[in-house]
Amino acid sequence: MSKINKVVLAYSGGLDTAVILKWLGETYDCEVVTFTADIGQGEEVEPARKKAEALGVKEIFIEDLREEFARDYIFPMFRANTIYEGEYLLGTSIARPLIAKRLVEIAKETGSDAISHGATGKGNDQVRFELGAYALNPDIKIIAPWRLWDLNSREKLLAYAEKHGIPVEMKRGKKSPYSMDANLLHISYEGGILEDPWAEPEEDMWRWTKSPEKAHDKATYIELEYRKGDIVAINGEELSPANVVETLNRLGGENGIGRDDIVENRYVGMKSRGCYETPGGTIMLKGHRAIESVTLDREVAHLKDELMPRYATLIYNGYWWSPEREMLQEMINASQETVNGVVKLKLYKGNVMVVGRDSKTHSLFDSSIATFEDDEGAYNQQDAEGFIKLNALRMRIAARKKHS
Question: Do 241 and 303 belong to one domain?
Fold first, then answer.
C-alpha cells in the first residue's frame, strides 16, 4: 500500500477501535479522522468525541443517521419481505452499507487516502464494509487491522492500551459474556455459551424483549397504515420511519415478540450460531405480507417470493450497492404502488396474529366472487370443469403412455 497521510476510522470509542486509532497513527505515521454513527444502538455516542479528543484526533464526525437508516435501508428491505435462510431479519447486515457509504463520503470530504474498520477476519462485516466501499469508490484504500496485526486477544489489546496510555473504561459489575451488536432494527448476541449450538441462552441475556411467559396476559391490538408498502402510521398516528421502528420495538418487546436463535451460514464459509431480538421487524414482516395479500396480483406476489431469497442473500453477503440489488429494488418498489391500506394485528405472548386487513383504494379481494353463499352469477362454477381438464391434459397423456 502506498503512503497513507490520512485515514477515516469507523470509531465506537470502545477498546478495539481506540487501540486501532492509536495503531493506525503509529503504523502508518498518518492522521486519523474518526466517524461515529448513531444508528439507534441505544447508547450515547457523544462520549466518543471526548475519547477521540483525548487521543489527539482533530477531525471528529458524530452523526445521527437513524432516520436515514430506517427510510433508505430498513423500509426498502421490508418491501421485499426479506428474510435470510428462513429466519434471519438481517438486522446487522442492513446497517453496514450505510456506514460504508458515510466512510467513503467522509474520506472524500476530508481528503483522506483510506478508510479503516474494526471487523475481524472471520466475520461477514469485513466483506460488507469493503464491498460497499469499493462499489462507491473503486480506488479507495482499506485498512483492516484485524487482518494485519497480532493483537488477537483482549489481553493483548489491554496490554497495548496500557503501553500507549490509552484510557480503558473497566465496566463495573458482571461483564456480558456475549459479543453484542445493536441498532435501530435489532440486537445480536454471539460467543460465550452460544458457541455450543445445544446450549440454551440464559434468560438474562435478552435486553429488549420480555420472555413470552412474562409478557402481558392481555393481548395488544395495533393498526398499521401502509402507503406504497411502507408503514406511515400506527393506531392512526403518523410517524417518521425511525419512530415507526422504535414504537414497534417497544410494543413487540412488551409482548415477548422477536426472539430468534439461529445457526446461519456466513459468507466466509463457516456456520455461526447467533441469537437476535428483532421485535419491530417481526411485526413489520407479518403486517407487510398481510397488506400485500389483498393488494398484490397473485403472480406479482409469487414472483416476489421467488426472488426474495436472492435479494436477502445479496444483503447478507454485502452486495447492497451492487447493480443486481439495485435492479431488484426497482422492481420491488414498482410492485408497491398499490400496497396501500390498513392491517390490524394482535400481539400476544410472542405471537403476531393478523386479525384484519383492508384497502379502500386497491383491494383485489371481491367478496361477491369469493363468497360461499349465492354469488348471483358473479362466478360460473361450471367453468372450472374445462379449466381442470386443460390443466390435467399433459398428465393424462403421460398416464396413458405409462399404462399402455
Answer: yes
Please report whether residue 368 resides in a domain. Answer: no
Is position 368 annotated as part of the catalytic site?
no
Dist CA 131 CA 320 (whole Å): 9
Residue 333 domain boundaries: 179-358
Based on the fold, state whether residues 140 and 191 are members of the same structural domain: no
Residue from 16, 38, 113, 230 carrying the catalytic annotation:
16
User: Is residue 397 included in any domain, yes or no?
Assistant: no
Domains: count for the chain: 2
Query: How does DSSP assign 92-142, residue by residue?
Result: TGGGHHHHHHHHHHHHHHHT-SEEE----TTSSHHHHHHHHHHHH-TT-EE
Q: Which of 49, 72, 176, 179 is catalytic?
A: 179
Is residue 150 annotated as a catalytic residue, yes or no? no
Candidates 14, 303, 352, 6; CA nearest to 157 is: 14
The C-alpha cell of 59 is what? 477531525
Query: Which amino acid is it at 154?
Result: R
Annotated catalytic residue within 66, 79, 96, 102: 96
Collapsed DSSP state (helix, strand, coil) of residue 254: helix
Q: Would you write out the chain's pLDDT as a tens digit for each of its 404 residues?
A: 679 999 999 999 888 999 999 999 999 999 999 999 999 998 889 889 999 999 999 999 999 999 999 999 999 999 999 999 999 999 999 999 999 999 999 999 999 999 999 999 988 999 999 999 999 999 999 999 999 999 988 889 999 999 998 887 655 455 667 889 999 999 999 999 999 999 999 999 999 999 999 999 999 999 999 999 999 999 999 999 999 999 999 999 999 999 999 999 999 999 999 999 999 999 999 999 999 999 999 999 999 999 999 999 999 999 999 999 999 999 999 999 999 999 999 999 999 999 999 999 999 998 878 777 776 777 888 999 999 999 999 999 999 999 88
- Amino acid in the structure at residue 233: A
73, 40 contact by CB (below 8 A): no
Q: Could you tell me if 205 and 321 lie in one domain?
A: yes
22-45: b (≥16 Cβ within 10 Å) or e: bbbbeebebbbbbbbbbbbbeeeb
Is 125 among the residues known to form the active site? yes
Same domain, 43 and 183: no
Rounded Cα–Cα distance for residues 66 and 249 (Å): 14
Q: Is 38 a catalytic residue?
A: no
Looking at the fold, whether 99 and 132 belong to one and the same domain comes out as yes
